[in-house]
Write a structure and sequence with these properties.
The strands form two sheets. Strands 4, 5, 6, 7, 8, 9 and 10 form a seven-stranded mixed sheet that branches. A three-stranded antiparallel sheet has the order 1-2-3, with no helix packed on it. Strand 8 and strand 9 form a beta hairpin. It is mainly β.
């Protein structure tokens, strides 16, 4: 397996091309001594359920895994909690309903390797359950190509394109 910082050639502090592997998760600049530890990016995904017990899923409109099923979600922004990110991501996907109650983080957290613009982003994905009254007036926006509403028994984990989501779905359905 290649070093997670293999694409970083120059020190982000002094610009020297003396940025070498320090250990399995860091690089060090031999010119100025700066050590950069590469940690995963935080991401959220939401299991959104209505009063009938149906799940709201989205079909991915962009790579990676374009055309596969996904959960509404995305990356946590700077200075934002996981809960705030979940609410923002749901809203950005055009899925805001009149009432949404987050039940909190589920006992599921997975790591993922997410390819973004040719760059491997290591993520730590946190999963939330959101309850809404209904799915009236929801529509796909942002990177969601379409809305898919399924009963839990009709959800097939293999239809999800991202590894972390594919791992979390069975855990959620068993709870």
């Amino acid at each position: 397996m290649r070093h997670p910082l293999y694409q970083f050639q120059f020190c982000p502090v002094c610009g020297a091309k003396a940025f070498v592997e320090h250990n399995e998760k860091a690089k060090k600049c031999m010119a100025c001594g700066f050590v950069y530890y590469f940690n995963p990016s935080s991401a959220v995904a939401c299991f959104i359920k209505n009063a009938k017990g149906e799940l709201l899923l989205v079909r991915r409109g962009k790579e990676p895994a374009k055309g596969t099923l996904d959960l509404p979600g995305g990356f946590v922004d700077m200075f934002e909690s996981g809960e705030e990110a979940a609410r923002r991501e749901v809203r950005e996907d055009g899925l805001m309903a009149a009432y949404m109650r987050e039940t909190g983080i589920l006992p599921v957290c997975t790591s993922n390797l997410y390819m973004y613009s040719g760059f491997e982003v290591h993520t730590l994905d946190m999963f939330y359950e959101c309850l809404v009254d209904d799915f009236n007036n929801v529509h796909a926006e942002d990177d969601a190509a379409e809305i898919v509403i399924l009963h839990p028994e009709d959800v097939n984990p293999e239809d999800f394109g991202l590894d972390s989501i594919r791992k979390a779905v069975p855990a959620y359905l068993r709870k």
